[in-house]
Amino acid sequence: MTKPVISITYCRQCNWLLRAGWMAQELLSTFGEDLGGVTLIPGTGGIFEIRLGDRLIWERKTDGGFPDAAELKQRVRDVLDPGRDLGHADRARETKG
């Protein structure tokens, strides 16, 4: 079975490459064994989208800015492996909610 790939499309005009790279690192450190990779895709016009395969996980304009690491990991987990415990990331969500 082929492992899914996450793609992060970022606005190069806005200099969001470092942010995209950091998010890729966070995702690989948590889901590295479950992913086929993380691809960074340069774009323009303020775009910042994160997809798991064809499924949109985060869109800057719709979701209001950028996700923190815990929120992003929770959204990826909810699609990739809903039963997985993310430890501190899940506990952070419980204290917010």
Q: Termini separation (Å)?
A: 36 Å
CATH topology: Glutaredoxin
* Number of DSSP strand runs: 4
State the helicity in percent bands. 40-55%
| Main sheet overview | 4 strands, mixed
Task: Note poorly predicted spans.
Answer: none
- The CATH level-2 architecture is identified as 3-Layer(aba) Sandwich
Q: What class, by secondary structure content?
A: alpha+beta
Name the helix and strand elements from N-terminus to C-terminus, one letter apiece. EHEEEHHH
**What do we call the CATH homologous superfamily?**
Glutaredoxin
Strand order of the largest sheet: 2-1-3-4
The CATH first-level class comes to Alpha Beta
Q: Name the beta content range.
A: 15-25%
Count of discrete domains: 1
Contiguous helical run count:
4
Structure in words:
This protein is an alpha+beta fold. It has one domain (5-96): Glutaredoxin (3-Layer(aba) Sandwich). Helix content is 41%, strand content 25%. It has helices at 17-31, 60-63, 69-80, 88-96; strands at 5-11, 37-43, 48-52, 55-59. Helix 3 packs across helix 4 (88-96). The longest helix is centred in the first third of the chain and has 15 residues, at 17-31. The radius of gyration is 13 Å and the shape is globular. The termini are far apart. The mean pLDDT is 92.
Short description:
This protein is of the alpha+beta class and 97 residues long. Helices cover 41% and strands 25% of the residues. Helix 1 (17-31) crosses helix 3 (69-80) and helix 3 (69-80) crosses helix 4 (88-96).
Features:
single chain; 97 residues; alpha+beta; Glutaredoxin; 4 helices; Thioredoxin-like_sf; redox-active center
